Structure prediction request, 134 residues.
Amino acid sequence: MPRYLLDTDTLSRLLREPRGAIAQRIAQGGVDAVATSPVVAGELRFGAMRTGNTALRERVDELLARLPVLPLDDDVAQAYAAARRALERAGTPIGPNDLWIAAHALATERVVVTGNVREFRRVHGLGVEEWHAG
Prediction:
């Protein structure tokens, strides 16, 4: 059974549509199959903080309290270095936070769930799915 790492735009969509396609996919696969990265948690918290919307900050806190946030470790750092080098050599870099998220998924043998499929598919060996459309 695949395990998934949910990225920032996926969790943002889940916050906007708590009964939408992403929530349905999580329910189908089981909550134990999904997690996220501290990089994603930081992006979500920053976005909520930037809006000044206290209710949004609370919803982000609640979501991250229910969803496992996997630790970053040296395996992730090794995956990051290898993926970054491969992307540099190919001349197809991706954004730094997306690269950390991809490395985290590679190191933990998870599929990244994202609306940004095009960018993540540049990372060799990374499983990528898009759940936004249902």
User: Anything to note?
Assistant: The chain has one domain: 4-129. The helical segments are 8-16, 21-29, 38-51, 54-66, 74-90, 96-107, 117-120. The longest helix spans residues 74-90.
